[in-house]
Amino acid sequence: MCARGTRCKLNSIRRPECRCSEQCPLHYDPVCADNGLTYTNECVMHVTACKEDLILTVYRRGKCSDVNNPCERLECSHDSQCHIHSNGTASCVCPQNCPPVLTPVCGTDGVTYDNICEVRRHACLQQAHIAVRHQGQCGAGLCASFACSPPLVCDKVDGKPSCVCPECTDEFREVCASDGRTYSNECKMRKEACETGVTLFVKYNGICGGPQSKLSPPLFQGRVIGNSLAEYSSNVLLSRSYGPSKTVALP
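^ thats the sequence. predicted structure below, dont judge the formating
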């Protein structure tokens, strides 16, 4: 039996395994999750949690903006995230439990972690900056002994290890960078620095100028992968049900 947000699929050797689902109903039945974000419906919340190695539960039915959202008043750092407690208060917490998913990654500290969630958890608990150096175990694969200078990361290109700009997920964990722009997550900021050759660093977590400020236009343009749909409680619609492989530009 697969967990919610996952589906049973056959892998390359015809063995069944649970993978993140790519399908959710398109009906709009918003839920406010305990991370202070609104998702288009509960299915989308579970799928997003699966894809981003998160554990999410429904805090309230409806949009977070329809209730007093305590996450709006918090700025969390070092991979901690806002969590709304049952009494309506919120605090920045480190991930206590990560999904039991084995997708090994090598951290920039030289340690192999079971998944990206474990990287974030250790970074948070240690109050240290730990990022993913490459997919797979440390000391194994083509990238094991191939060093790249940040923000470049090692990846296999045409069967050979190469230093490339990082690939990023569509996760929304905004950071305000040293260029005064808001990026949807720290990886997107590093990717921008890598591609433009400009040195960037995180000034603080959250949207530049406060939670009501508008995000920079470049963050609203790009490829929507799967059905990762979330709306922030400041009524800024960050993504909608356009389906995979369509390009959207949100105002």
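The chain has three domains: 6-93, 102-164, 165-211.
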